[in-house]
Amino acid sequence: QVQLVESGGGLVQAGGSLRLSCAASGRTSSMYYMAWFRQAPGKEREFVAAITRNIASKTYADSVKGRFTISRNNANNTVYLQMNFLKPEDTAVYYCAARSSTATSYTDWGQGTQVTVSS
Fold first, then answer.
1. Cα–Cα distance between 115 and 117 in angstroms, integer?
2. Parallel, antiparallel, or unpaired: how do β-strands 46-52 and 78-83 relate?
3. Count of CB atoms within 10 A of residue 98's CB?
4. Which of 55, 76, 90, 105 is deepest in the core (most CB within 10 A)?
5. For residue range 4-59, what is the model confidence (pLDDT) as tens digits?
6. Which CA distances in Å does 6 have to 1, 20, 52?
7. Which residues of 43-75 are buried (b: 16+ CB within 10 A; e: fewer)?
């Protein structure tokens, strides 16, 4: 099992930036895919971005393309989400997740970090 701990959330004005971090421990060898999801109040959790272990592949939700960048450092088992040009609609709890290359869904989740963007 993998333990994931997010940090870096907070309150920021529209147009500002934040960098989220997710530190992993435990069975980190199984973390082929790492991703960020978010859940706004009253809405379902939605995919934000994902990255493979070899960093060769990154995918983004259309709503964040060009504004958010996902990266990872395998040496310290950390994944990051650089968020620029933030909008009020980006307000949500952001979750880090991990899964193996064979899993069909994400199996390990962090507790989440709150991001609030004021207009």
1. 7
2. unpaired
3. 27
4. 90
5. 999 999 999 999 999 999 999 998 877 899 999 999 999 999 999 999 988 889 99
6. 16, 7, 18
7. eeeebbbbbebeeeeeebeeebeeebbbebeee
The two beta strands, 108-109 and 113-118, are unpaired
**Pairwise CA distance, residues 52 & 112, whole Å:** 21
Upper half-sphere CA count for residue 35 (Cβ side, 13 Å): 24
| Contact indicator for 86, 12 with CB cutoff of 8 Å | yes
Looking up tokens 């709503």 gives 63
DSSP string across 46-97:
EEEEEEETTS--EEE-TTTTTTEEEEEETTTTEEEEEE-S--GGG-EEEEEE
As given in the structure block, the two tokens for residue 31 are 């973390």
